[in-house]
Amino acid sequence: PRIYFEDTGEGTNDKLMAIANYNENFVVQSLVDDGESYDVENILVCNRDGNVSVGSGDFSVIATKKIYLDG
After folding, report:
1. Who wins on pLDDT, 2 or 65?
2. Beta strand pairing status for 25-31 and 38-47?
3. Hey, how many other C-beta atoms are within 10 angstroms of the C-beta on 43?
4. What is the SS3 assignment for 2-70?
5. DSSP letter, residue 71
6. pLDDT for 8-26, tens place per residue?
7. How many CA atoms lie within 13 A of 41 on its CB side?
8. Edge-first strand listing for the sheet containing 52-54
């Protein structure tokens, strides 16, 4: 399942974002305006084990940098 978010004020192929549950992963994606292809497929991926990937969706790579959240 996927939920789409559309920002009608943006330019061509910059309007559509989605969150999805795909292969047991929670995924944030950007798509071209017709929703038929990805602009960026894996902006953020969180898997069922609590692993987080930013930009790749590849959990086999050992993180060399930590993500710090403030607030």
Report:
1. 2
2. antiparallel
3. 19
4. EEEEECCCCCCCCCEEEEEEECCEEEEEEECCCCCCEEEEEEEEEECCCCEEECCCCCCCCCCCCCCCC
5. -
6. 999 898 899 999 998 888 9
7. 7
8. 2-6, 16-22, 25-31, 38-47, 52-54
